Amino acid sequence: MSIVEVEEVSKIYHQGKMTFKALDDVSLAVDKGEFIALAGPSGSGKTTLLNLVGGLDLPDSGKVVLDGNDYSKMGDGQRADLRLERLGFVFQSYNLIPVLTAAENVEYILRLQNVEKAERIERVQSILDEVGLQEKHNSRPDELSGGQQQRVAVARAIVSNPAVVLADEPTANLDSKTGEKLLEMMRVMNEKRQVTFIFATHDKMVMDFARRIVSLHDGKVAGDQKKDE
């Protein structure tokens, strides 16, 4: 069974008397351990699709299934619990809590999961070391570079051992060298931990790193290419 199943999904947004069909009968299956990019220009539907996979929004028709769980059959609270337990999120704006240190930002997810303190400390230290922030555990976001903040965001997404990490334009605010290092780090995590990564991007560098590219155009799947290993 695929870790993510999107079946004949459509999504329409309404603004005043105007309607916009962000997704039009999209189907997609993602297997465990994939490193996949949803690619396309602004307005193609890639972020909408990512939000539906993350259970942050629901389709107007069709269904989305994450790890065997059909979002359409779940209440808001159940979807929130599923996101907490099975998903990690990485955003282009980092979304770190400014008053917390790097370690506290990463630990926050584990607190929500009611993980015991000793295990929280061990897992946070381990993941921050893994992403190369050994000396930055006690630094707050405003004391970190953009690349370091995004590494904290990746550590926060990974520390709970999710089934899938969703990354929306994760390299958008980074220079090319920093972005490349971030992608190399995430690919190692993907291979080492078998965590599925799904990117929404229009960055060619992300597409170069991805092992599969699903191209979207005007809310439809325009292409689906798997690269040779």
Brief descriptors of the model:
single chain, 229 residues, alpha/beta, Rossmann fold, 6-stranded mixed beta sheet, 4-stranded antiparallel beta sheet, 7 helices, globular
Provide a descriptive summary of the structure in words:
This protein has 229 residues and is an alpha/beta fold. It has one domain: P-loop containing nucleotide triphosphate hydrolases (Rossmann fold). Helices cover 35% and strands 29% of the residues. It has seven helices and ten strands. A hairpin with a 2-residue loop joins strand 1 and strand 2.
- Tell me how many strands there are: 10
Domain count, please report it.
Answer: 1
Report low-confidence residues grouped into runs of 5 or more.
none
Mean pLDDT: 93
Distance between the termini: 22 Å
Characterize the main sheet. Answer: 6 strands, mixed
Q: Given the helix and strand composition, which structural class is it?
A: alpha/beta
In the CATH scheme, the class would be Alpha Beta
Name of the CATH superfamily? P-loop containing nucleotide triphosphate hydrolases
CATH third-level topology: Rossmann fold
Shape: globular
Strand order in the sheet with the most strands: 6-7-8-3-9-10
Question: Helix and strand string, N-terminal first?
Answer: EEEHEEHEHHHEHEHEE
Share of helix, binned: 25-40%
Q: So, CATH architecture?
A: 3-Layer(aba) Sandwich
Radius of gyration: 17 Å
Give the DSSP E fraction (strand runs of 2 or more residues): 25-35%
User: Helix count, per DSSP?
Assistant: 7
